[in-house]
Amino acid sequence: MRFPNSRLKSKFSEKFSETMKAVMPILAIVLLLCFTIAPIPPSILMTFLVGAALLIVGMLFFNVGVELSMTPIGERTGTIMTKSKNLFIVIFVSFVMGFVITISEPDLQVLANQVPSIPNMTLILAVALGVAIFLVLAILRMLIGIPLSYLLVFFYVVIFGLTPFVQKDFLSVAFDSGGVTTGPMTVPFIMAFGIGISAIRSDKHAADDSFGLVSMCSIGPILAVMILGIIYKPESSEQVSESIPDIANTVDLWKSFSSELPTYIHEIAVSLFPIVIFFTIMQLIVRDINKTTIIKIIVGIIYTYLGLVLFLTGVNVGFMPAGNYLGATIAGLDISWIIIPIGMVIGYFIVKAEPAVFVLTKQVEELTDGAISAKAMGTSLSLGVAASVGLAMTRVLTGISILWFLIPGYFIALVLTFFVPKIFTAIAFDSGGVASGPMTATFLLPFAMGACEALGGNIVADAFGIVSMVAMTPLIAIQIMGLIYRIKDSKLHKELASQADQTALASYGDMEIIEL
Q: What are the CA-CA distances from residue 224 to residues 172, 208, 230, 406 (Å)?
């Protein structure tokens, strides 16, 4: 049996259409701003456009590659590991996988370079340890059947209980870490891993429990960075904003991308290598995958690799300077408050271009048999991110502490967990980590940093935290969608019950007439 080329072409065509729909709105918004209220130098505009082209091609290859490789590898790993029925193997493999994949996450390298007073490797290892421990807890939760809402309430109470002991400027970075570690490399594998584990369960809550791993893995980094903040007690939190590249001609433009390309070629190779080794060892032990499937997975890994290299090169080199410059320009206007609605519009559309969002919405639609559609998920995420960016821009303008938003936000989100269907809670908390990906880190964060610098604010205290804001609001938005779903479902059941009663009454009346 051969993998049909026509099917692969159809898959590329489908993903290309999805990619263009996701990216074109944000391109249109940026270009509109550039030619109206926020003029930028031609060099930055050209860098942005080249970056956008790389982003489109990268997303195309990434989305096809994940479907061909990462998803089946994760699902098979979860299923095989759980079938062993050896708790030690389950714990050991989950811990190692969480630790290794987190170290490989490209976004974590960016975060490490931005945290003051803590050595990069110390931060990376601490965050990786946090993810590994909480991945083990998430797997044990699934196997034991502990409600996700109980664990979320407990650990977020612990997190907010630690906040008085962490330096104020350091809190934003701590909460941001929970979003950046669940990036395009981690999310597809971990989500598929959870689906594989739940697949062998036959109880009615198996589908609900297939989600929730990402949400648990987002808690570990927050706690790890907060504990480091308490231990190191950083005295300086000064942060230099992103520098604007000096590009005089097309040769300089080419050099700006070509000089960074080897970095991402190496980073993504390091990221994928542990997964490839893990899959190879598993295949040598189990030997239950046919040759055609192995070829598809290998092709998918190559596509995933190319896609991530092009995507990260495009957004880091092309989007960062544009975001920084636009933020500074708009904040410098006489009507600086306009950055709030502009930020909300950008936030609404930019989440659609997050690579892992495609993975999440597709898996949600498939596992719920269309009851929760990808379109409804996408709209809820967009509304949530739009609100979060608006709040983040308000922080940049006013300097309000991030805790004034995070504490009530998480309180509302955690209260909702007791009133919505379990699957919506798990999907909502997974969505927070998925929404705050590389597009947020490389465009929205520089956008906030540029605005903050133009206004003379504290970049670490006021601009950082936008990732955590983006990670928070989907928790509320998706659960509100779940609440609406429950209300509609309840009304439908009442209507059906009423119709059944009326039918029974009519039948009873007919029987009386016949007897007479």
A: 13, 28, 10, 18
| Amino acid at position 18, single letter | E
Angle at 117 between CA 112 and CA 119, to 5 degrees: 50
Tell me which residue of 28, 29, 18, 57 sits closest to 308, measured CA to CA.
57
Most confident segment among 223-232, 277-286, 349-358, 476-485:
476-485
Q: In 10 A of CB 188, how many CB atoms?
A: 28
DSSP 3-state of 381: helix
Among 270, 282, 278, 293, CA closest to 83:
282
Q: Of 278, 268, 214, 236, whose CA–CA distance to 434 is shortest?
A: 214
Tokens 């007897």 correspond to what residue? 515
Distances (CA, A) of 121 to 68, 103, 116, 481: 33, 10, 13, 40
Question: How far is it, in rounded angstroms, from Cα 126 to Cα 225?
Answer: 7
End-to-end CA distance of the chain: 70
Q: Could you tell me how far CA 241 lies from the centroid of its own chain?
A: 24
Reduced DSSP (H G I as helix, E B as strand, rest coil) percent helix, strand, coil of the chain, to 5: 85, 0, 15
* Residue (of 292, 301, 135) closest to 221 by Cα position: 135
Q: How far is CA 408 from the centre of its chain?
A: 22
pLDDT band at 157 (very low <50, low <70, confident <90, very high): very high
Residues 213 and 193: beta-carbon distance below 8 Å: yes
Q: What is the CA radius of gyration of the chain?
A: 24
Tally Cβ neighbours within 10 Å of residue 198: 25
Question: Could you give the maximum distance between any two Cα atoms of the chain, in Å?
Answer: 99
pLDDT, one tens digit per residue, over 236-269 is 445 544 556 667 778 888 888 888 889 889 888 8
CB 477 within 8 A of CB 384: yes
**pLDDT tens-place string over residues 2-46:** 445 667 777 788 778 878 877 888 889 989 999 999 888 888 889
- Number of H helices and E strands in the chain, helices first, is 23, 0
**Of 271, 270, 245, residue with least CA distance to 187:** 271
Half-sphere exposure of 97 (CA within 13 A, CB side): 30
CA dist., res. 324 & res. 215, Å (int): 29
Give the pair of three-digit tokens for residue 106.
């490209």
